[in-house]
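Components:
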Amino acid sequence: MDKKVGVYICSGCEIGKNLDIEKLNQIATEQNVTICKNHSSLCSVEGFDLINNDIQQKNLDRIIIAACSPRVKTEVFDFPENVLLERTNIREQVAWCMEPGEEDTQMAAEDYLRMSITKVTNTEIPKPFIAENISSDILVVGGGITGITAAIDGTKAGYKVYIIEKEEKLGGWLNKLHKQIPYAAPYDELINPEIEDKLKELEKLDKVQIHTSTTIKEISGQPGQFDVHLLNGKEEKITVGSIVTATGWQPYNANKLSHLGYGKPNILTNVEFEEFVKNNTNKELPKNILFIQCAGSRDKNHLPYCSSFCCGTSLKQAKYIRDLSPDSNVFIVYKDIRTLGLYEEFYKKVQKDDQIFFTKGEIEKVIPEKNNISVQVKDTLIGDDISLSVDMIVLATGMVPNGTEDLNLSYRLGKGLPELKYNFSDSHFICFPYETRRTGIYTAGCLRAPMDIASSKSDASGAILKAIQTIEATKRGESVHPRSGDKSYPDLFMDRCTDCKRCTEECPFGSYDENEKGTPLPNPNRCRRCGICLGSCPERVINFTDYSINSISAMIKSVEVPDEFEEKPRILVFVCENDAYPAIDMAGQKGLKYSPYVRVISVRCLGSINKVWISDALSKGFDGILQIGCKPGDDYQCHFIHGSELTETRGENIQETLETMMLEPERIKTEFVEITDFEKIPQIINDYVEEIELIGSNPFKEL
Amino acid sequence: MDKTQKPVLIIGGGISGVTTVVEIAEVGKEVILIEKMPYLGGNVVKFNNYFPKLCPPTCGLEINFRRIKQNPKIKYFTSSEVQEISGKKGNFKVKIKTSPQYIKNNCTACGKCAEVCPEERPDNFNYGFTKTKAAYLPHEMAFPFKYQIDDEYCKKESCNKCVEACEYNAIDLSAKEEITELEVSSIVTATGWESYDASKIENLNYSDSKNIITNVEFERFIASNGVNENKLLRLTDNTEPKKVAFVQCAGSRDENHLPYCSAVCCSASLKHALTIQELYPTTEVKIFYIDMRVSGRNEDFLIKVQENKNIELVKGKVGKITEVENNNLILEAEDILSGKKIKYEAEMVVLATGIVPSEIKLNLNTNENQFISDTQIEGIIPVACSKKPMDVSSSVKDATAAAVKAIQ
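Structure:
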């Protein structure tokens, strides 16, 4: 072969004891590799030197290390960049989890070695896609505190930032604040709104370009090359590398809160009250004021969620009233006072004021009378229902996200970003709050979740970091999270494309645009390398240089499937590299044993499994195919959003394939696991092997 | 970008520190991570699951560890602590102390050392409720993936069994503490938190009743790789409790203990209640609380709990817990809604203890509650729970925010 393959088989960690290394050497030799050597500890300095010297002296360009899992000793096997490295996992997934010394265990190791040799000979080292004219500038949409903070931090990190705001001036809601809650002890005094200082800081930075009274007509392109058409009387085009959108929130429509008296005199929302105080600083306020918390929040008829800021805001506004007049009385009716974290200390300070009365309760009735408003409250802490007579009511109304449609993306999958429940454009992942389904476009602030000023600022800084990171990764031709650093990208062989649109519809990240005919127009910089498009394509048009239809098909075909009479079934197991593969590894580490009839192939996501691999496996004589991936559903754990779910929608199609092959539907099965489910792995595998043994041998075996 | 720029130092390898590290490295800058434990992942790696998705923390950590393994911009020191910081932004000098590395990096994690080790140690990963050998793997997913030797319990050269058993010459029982000096451009303190010492809340009787555990201990009790492998068992008799009570604000929002709200304990107890229901659908759970503090869309999570007929939320502060016969526990509380004093007999009690900042021996400004203040000399950036209590998602956001400050 023209490729120079070196195979190195480790005999350490029980591998040499549990497997016949000499026979493995023979397999390698039969496959005509350039060199095959053994060592008792390849991860030692001597082991590494052995391989590295061969690379130098024999010009090896492909190295197979048959030893431990690729998840360990990653840092040790650091070879020159032009060497393609394949790790054949015969420790965790053979020697440690199958009966030592048995023929079936040996056969598994031999197959894995064949598969690896086949894989490297059908794979190239990816050459990154590096577009020309990559812009290092960042667009920040929305000029409230979140957008301003993002712009300041981006600029300070050395990047030019365009900040656009649809209103005439920057500042957003903070312009309307009278005072703010203090950030630090002693929490006695309210602080002046920080917006003026922030604006001064922003204006001093020369790498910021401010566009007020500006909207977006259209955004097209991809990370590194977003063309943004701005509208400000005239049209103007700018090009940016990435985008942070922070278009904020609106107060909940109080007109829907007539049951709380809204619409009647002296019944205001918290936003209206804030403006009233700001604009009437020296004017006296009414003496008896009631705050109704969760007005329209935590209410299934209105906003089911908690708006997070309203408890703090009412405490602050209560202080306005009390600071102005010593004989005023404030009543606060709440469900729970939610001053999380250090804000508790502010709550405590407010509570010390005897003329601020707190009670948990539900508002039964609000009756405006001639000179006052009477309010009936039930389910209070004192047990009885109470009546209050007040001069003014402030409804602590919640926040509604503004949405992202204003971005006007020219993407096939829509103008805005996908939204989670209640229209917030947040990440679904707890560990990865900046996960975005439109690569290079990050949301920040109340667009993502209800939050206060401090959280919005922190969120803004994080979002701008991600925007910077996308630009730098794009310059290197690398993917961003979760396959960070991956230099491969989908390569489309358009001659065979039938414009079926499956790839453009199924890509979770909107990587593909479409022309009028429906032909996919790939945007490699938007790609996150999950391979879902590869899995979707019925014409096998889409491939990555290091992950292709052909390379996996060839691996499947390289397995030696014993004939029916040997009674050794073969099960192909596709496992997602993210959670299922580590779980299988850990089963091995724990010494849990499972059937040696399985052959595991790691995939980028279950969604990347192409139907042709399944028919190839069945034609080859595999008796069953098991797919193990991350959990789908509302609380999905799939790292590529709907990759696992696609196994279900595509399942029907695959069942048709089985039908045309006259095969039982059970020959394909999908299981979902969590990474911690390693104890369950043997049972999942063994139960399936048993199920297949009952069905009997695949009739295609002999063909 | 400035090629001569020194790396950024991150102190603390929990979820926040790990996040800051990978986020900076993926911008293309050099970073150094210091972690005092022999493994990364901090507190969250001990958790059974996260709220509100009830998903395992190791899922996200696996991805982050992969990002660390493959990124040459990242260097990390485990079992290490920062001893001294001097200098200023752009040019800090930092002294790192690494405790003796008896097991070297060429450990293959084959496990032979633990097999032959005759000594045992309390497993601090499980808060001492289980034991491991003195040569041990911290946990299944430990990163770096190598065995450790507990200095305190190992008999060293006088035993030497592990040295003889190791086929890779990976053990050196004469290893010494090492000092490394680093030059860094800026410093992120991601030193995190510890659980408040429940024995200080005397009226809740934690020290004397084995069936009273804390919320962090609960995580290890119920974890699949924990004390009882996905089972909740009482320590006194190994039975599954039929009635479990949660005591919110155990030490938090209390002038005698922690004056602040720890921000995560309400959601954590809701998560625990649901986890119990998943495993034992007939077990009765009562949660005693002052205010139920979840926020944002996590309200749905609260509703899910409220809809579960076996979980009851009782607004009331528990004043006293007494152990009675059968090692059951009587909780005395005031039901604030009805005004009545209530007594409840539970078979197990979980104290929702709060967050205290981890002790740091560095000369940094702290606030009255020992959290690291936002105001430091330029170039030192506190992050997440080192500066105030927050949940995982907020910590990760804040850790990403710290990354941009650190590269300015």
